């Protein structure tokens, strides 16, 4: 009898326990709306098939259906808070006439996507395991006669915030990004014929700086011309400029067939023990962690303080890598089979600034080299990286605000 009473009590309090659970949040950098093929009728005369991916901080109950007048995809999500996330930040938002999301009713939020034509939900499923829970919805175009919307859809937009509540896309105030064109001067980097890595990445950095400045971002360059700058000095210059993101640009060479496609490298914590000790020995200790004077401290303490600083910057660096690779995938930029890798590169050692190294491509690969020297490809890549940086910055600021609360 006592056991039955305990079970009954648990059933009574279970809704309260569920309600007390932290709300799930959308990971916009790892979410996207993408085209997965050509439109019907052999690529002509209709909208293309699409796939919506919503990556969340935890798995949640959800439901998916279509409504008409106008044709919309509705995704209802239980226990999801969209605060701080903007529909415009979803990669692929420009593929459809409109996207809105927000609170729907108690405990539920709703995503409304206006579609460019009649569709059916080909499949819908949720991955609940690592690396992150993700809801994937495949949409396939159909003829008007085959479109089967859910009836009584008058409430599809109920309780959603009006579009006016979303501010124009802009990076956080006083966002400072350090661009680090690799090599330079006596170090030309990789070479293929008359092309050198140092010249290619410097030219790309200048174009990227212009694109970022047009978005209101302040840009600090570790080198402005064909000059040599020591690796550690690059980090120091970024820190002196107050950079909130450090992006090193490269276009290396490897033996034929070993590597091709854009690749993002992040500091690998598993290999930073020895590197951190060497860094502590080589440089003024007060240059390693902003605001922390390590002068006179032993190496173990220096390592510990740097590791502690990385508990904040490493996840932020990883989030930037997700934004960047998602944007590259959306825009059709060819990437390495493993587009995000860990490495112990010197320019990634800074524990107090989120950092990444972007291999734009490998100058040793014929296709990559053609891209790197193609103005059209370079312009597209510039827009991809600039959009990823500003999108990540907005997301990073929203996450910081939630942590403060």
UniProtKB/TrEMBL annotation:
CDD domains assigned to the protein according to its UniProt record, in alphabetical order: MurNAc-LAA (cd02696)
InterPro entries, A to Z: AMIN_dom, MurNAc-LAA_cat, N-acetylmuramoyl_amidase_3
One Pfam family, short name: AMIN
Reactions catalysed, as given in the entry: Hydrolyzes the link between N-acetylmuramoyl residues and L-amino acid residues in certain cell-wall glycopeptides
Residue stretches in coiled coil: none
Keywords for the protein's UniProt record, in alphabetical order: Hydrolase, Signal
Phosphoprotein is among the record's keywords: no
Enzyme Commission number(s): 3.5.1.28
Enzyme class at the top of the EC tree: hydrolase
PANTHER family: N-ACETYLMURAMOYL-L-ALANINE AMIDASE, N-ACETYLMURAMOYL-L-ALANINE AMIDASE AMIC
The protein's name: N-acetylmuramoyl-L-alanine amidase
Organism (species): Paracoccus stylophorae
Upper lineage: Bacteria, Pseudomonadati, Pseudomonadota, Alphaproteobacteria, Rhodobacterales
